[in-house]
Write a structure and sequence with these properties.
Blueprint: H1 3-20, H2 28-34, E1 37-41, H3 47-63, E2 69-73, H4 81-97, E3 104-109, E4 134-139, H5 140-149, H6 156-167, H7 169-181
Parallel strand pairs: 1-2
Antiparallel strand pairs: 2-4, 3-4
């Protein structure tokens, strides 16, 4: 198995064994079952090159309506969480500049994700922790539709925080490690 395939497998494991299994995102199961999630490994480490690839991915989604969403995986170059956050800011600005605001939105995941003002050890951070830094490109129209059908979308984040805190940090450390081992 080449390195990109292993990274994709590990990320798919995370989606299935964490996000779907524990209902962190109640909308993910349908897309997993439909096979409509695209996993793209971006090997570039320079910010400008990564941003160019991100726009290419938006263009891919424009041309491939059967692909619902993309996990844009960045295995190299963005391990420091602050560097990743800088990239996220630039990516959001670029989506706006390129006319993709309102079309796609970014959700963000990182192995060291930490919500502002929370300690690094808070299990709630695991709602956004992934095996690799990832930008998740989401179709806004699709998200609006599923949120309209959900009985209480505003309760999802709080439910996830409570669930993660109840399970504890060690539970999620082991869960993520298992996703990497099964790559």
């Amino acid at each position: 198995m080449n390195a990109d395939n292993e990274i994709i497998t590990q990320t798919e494991n995370w989606v299935k064994q964490v996000i779907v299994k524990y209902n962190i995102c109640p909308f993910a199961r349908q897309e997993v079952e439909r096979g409509s999630i695209r996993y793209t490994v971006v090997e570039q480490t320079e910010v400008a090159d990564v941003l160019l690839e991100l726009i290419k991915e938006c263009q891919y989604l424009d041309q491939n309506q059967h692909t619902e969403t993309t996990l844009f995986i960045l295995p190299d170059g963005f391990a420091p969480f602050d560097d990743f956050l800088d990239l996220v800011d630039l990516a959001n600005d670029l989506l706006f500049e390129q006319g993709f605001e309102g079309v796609y939105q970014l959700a963000t995941f990182h192995p060291d994700y930490c919500f502002a003002g929370e300690p690094q050890s808070d299990p709630a951070n695991y709602t956004n922790r992934s095996p690799y830094p990832c930008l998740h490109l989401i179709r806004e129209a699709s998200m609006a539709r599923v949120l309209d059908m959900h009985p209480d979308p505003d309760a999802i984040p709080q439910r996830n925080i409570e669930f993660c805190r109840k399970k504890g940090e060690a539970f999620f450390v082991n869960l993520l490690a298992a996703c990497l081992k099964n790559g």
